[in-house]
Specification:
The complex is a heterodimer.
Chain A (H helix, E strand, L loop, with lengths): L2 E3 L4 E5 L4 E3 L2 E3 L6 E6 L5 E7 L5 E3 L5 E5 L4 E6 L8 E9 L5 E4 L3 E6 L1
Parallel strand pairs in A: 2-12
Antiparallel strand pairs in A: 1-4, 3-9, 5-6, 5-10, 7-8, 8-9, 10-11, 10-12
Chain B lengths: L4 E3 L2 E4 L5 E6 L6 E8 L3 E9 L2 E4 L8 E7 L2 E6 L8 E8 L8 E2 L3 E5 L1
Parallel strand pairs in B: 2-11
Antiparallel strand pairs in B: 1-3, 3-8, 4-5, 4-9, 5-6, 7-8, 9-10, 9-11
The chains are: A mainly beta, B mainly beta.
């Protein structure tokens, strides 16, 4: 079954600095991959998704992610972080064993310092 | 569209009481998901409906949990009897079709069982 792992529980970056959040997937074929963001007290919002084609995917709020098959990774990046980006970030992929409902990683909590 | 609507937003109940969480998916979406979020276990899929039919309920923790989708615009998640370890944030999500396209999340119901 397809699954994702987020190795970093917490990440702290300074406002204006670049950001990279890691996501590793385990699946033989080309996976479907998603990044979601959760602001405090809110539900999850889709940032971007990868199905096939161009390995560099652009999302909302200035985020992008790159699919790298050789590294089994789908890392999320942003060139310059804003204080409003502080949130919980989840990588996800559909699980064929569950009717393709999304399975989520444990999440990475992003703290942005002044 | 108003998005996925969950009610109540917060619920505090005593151990042993019945709790019912409600969800109205986005009109036209034929897939509905219930997730539970805790610090220890992250986001867990509880049950997935497609066209009002439960497809996978393997994530439902115990017989105390039950979910129904009597029509395309309404679903409930019931816990009877509730226990303190059921305290969590419960999310409902819907999508046009499972896995491939974006799942839209409600704002969640924060359940506290005392």
């Amino acid at each position: 079954a397809q699954s994702v792992t987020q190795p970093d529980i917490h990440i702290t970056v300074s406002e204006g600095a670049s950001l990279e959040l890691r996501c590793n997937y385990s699946y033989g074929a080309t996976p479907y991959l998603f990044w979601y963001v959760q602001s405090p007290g809110q539900g999850l919002q889709l940032l971007l998704k990868y199905f096939s084609g161009d390995t560099l995917v652009q999302g909302i709020k200035g985020f992008e992610a790159e699919f790298k098959r050789s590294q089994s990774s789908f890392n999320l990046r942003k060139p310059s972080v804003h204080w409003s980006d502080a949130a919980e970030y989840f990588c996800a992929s559909p699980n064929s064993n569950s009717g393709y409902a999304l399975n989520f990683g444990k999440g990475t909590s992003l703290l942005v310092t002044p | 569209d108003a998005g996925v609507i969950q009610s109540p937003r917060h619920e505090v109940t005593e151990m042993g009481q019945e709790v019912t969480l409600r969800c109205k998916p986005i009109s036209g979406h034929n897939s509905l998901f219930w997730y539970r979020q805790t610090m220890m276990r992250g986001l867990e899929l509880l049950i997935y409906f497609n066209n009002n039919v439960p497809i996978d309920d393997s994530g439902m923790p115990e017989d105390r949990f039950s979910a129904k989708m009597p029509n395309a615009s309404f679903s409930t998640l019931k816990i009877q009897p509730s226990e303190p370890r059921d305290s969590a944030v419960y999310f409902c999500a819907s999508s046009l079709s499972p896995g491939v396209v974006e799942a839209f999340f409600g704002q969640g119901t924060r359940l506290t069982v005392v």
